[in-house]
Design goal:
With about 290 residues, the chain is mostly beta strands. It has one domain (about 30-95, about 120-195, about 210-285): Porin (Beta Barrel), CATH 2.40.160.20. The chain contains two helices and 15 strands. The strands form three sheets. Strands 1, 2, 3, 4, 7, 8, 11, 12, 13, 14 and 15 form an eleven-stranded antiparallel sheet that branches. A two-stranded antiparallel ribbon has the order 5-6. A two-stranded antiparallel ribbon has the order 9-10.
């Protein structure tokens, strides 16, 4: 009986020691590689890519951001940290080309424009769209100890996000010399000489680029990003641990804040960058 009582006392003492989180464990911090997986409700701008014949369902889903994360205790059970990362995904297509006589000059095949032929040249048209998401944010969280080496915490990432959609249409391969040629004519000093046909000489109101093997649009936007989360941290070695976070990413790009090649697109729509997020981190530290 005495042995049983002694055993119960030892077990209770051991369990009590496990739940009494040592105060010194709150000191220090950690840093490590932290990939973030986001199940985006929609890729910003993806719905407009149908005009290029691209299959947007082939973008990575969930979208992956490769980044680094760090954290440090500041006082009591409060912790500060930071996250920075970037991810990208690409879709591409090589469509079949048909050449037709554009009788009304609208660059669209009308019902009466039947003079056409399939393009059988050496170079085909390739179309490529690359979506990128960059994120830089500070984190603040409250720690709730469970066991000596196991913590539960709740907090949020607050910072800036940037999304970019690069769309390239390309026919053939560029040479190094052609890359640096002026797309509108010849520069002599401070003057551009833009050549036109005799019939266009008196009716030129805009400048059209010369034939070039590729054309690139760069559409981007910067926005405030907010991501509340719940995290669990397990210190399985003295200086090595695993941290897993589950949250929801929320960002909004306001109307008119999209840019094309660095210039604002005034009639661009409001766009949401949101979805469930999952983050893992293998860290070095306490």
């Amino acid at each position: 009986m005495k042995k049983l009582i002694l055993l119960i006392i030892l077990v209770i003492s051991k369990m009590s020691a496990q739940f009494n989180y040592p105060a010194e464990d709150f000191l220090g911090g950690g840093i490590g590689y932290s990939p973030m997986y986001i199940k985006l409700n929609a890729i910003p701008g993806a719905s407009s890519l149908n005009n290029f014949g691209l299959d947007t369902t082939k973008f990575d889903d969930p979208f992956v951001i490769h980044g680094g994360e760090g954290f440090a205790h500041i006082t009591g059970r409060w912790r500060l940290g930071g996250y920075a990362g970037m991810g990208s995904s690409t879709v591409s297509s090589v469509p079949t080309a048909v050449i037709f006589v554009d009788e009304d000059g609208d660059n669209k095949k009308g019902p009466g424009e039947n003079t056409q032929k399939e393009y059988d040249g050496y170079y085909g048209m390739s179309i490529r769209a690359k979506f990128s998401f960059m994120l830089g944010a500070a984190s603040v969280e409250y720690v709730m100890p469970i066991l000596q080496d196991l913590e539960l915490s709740t907090g949020a990432l607050l910072g800036l996000g940037r999304v970019n959609m690069g769309i390239e249409q390309k026919s053939g391969s560029s040479t190094w010399k052609k890359v640096f040629e002026n797309a509108y004519g010849e520069m002599k000093g401070d003057t551009l000489f833009y050549g036109v046909s005799e019939s266009e000489y008196d009716n030129t109101n805009t400048f059209s680029p010369l034939e070039i093997p590729s054309f690139l649009r760069d559409v981007s936007a910067t926005f405030f990003n907010f991501q509340p989360y719940l995290a669990i941290k397990w210190q399985f070695l003295e200086r090595l641990g695993l941290r897993i976070s589950l949250g929801f990413n929320k960002g909004t790009i306001n109307a008119g804040n999209w840019k094309l090649n660095g210039r604002f697109i005034e009639d661009s729509p409001t766009t949401s960058v949101s979805g469930v997020s999952f983050r893992t981190m293998l860290y070095l530290g306490l």
